Amino acid sequence: MKIGTIIARARRATGLKQKELADAAGVHVQTLKRLEGGSGAGYETVKALEKALRKRGARWEETEEGVRLTVDLRDERG
Question: pTM score, two decimals?
Answer without folding.
Answer: 0.83
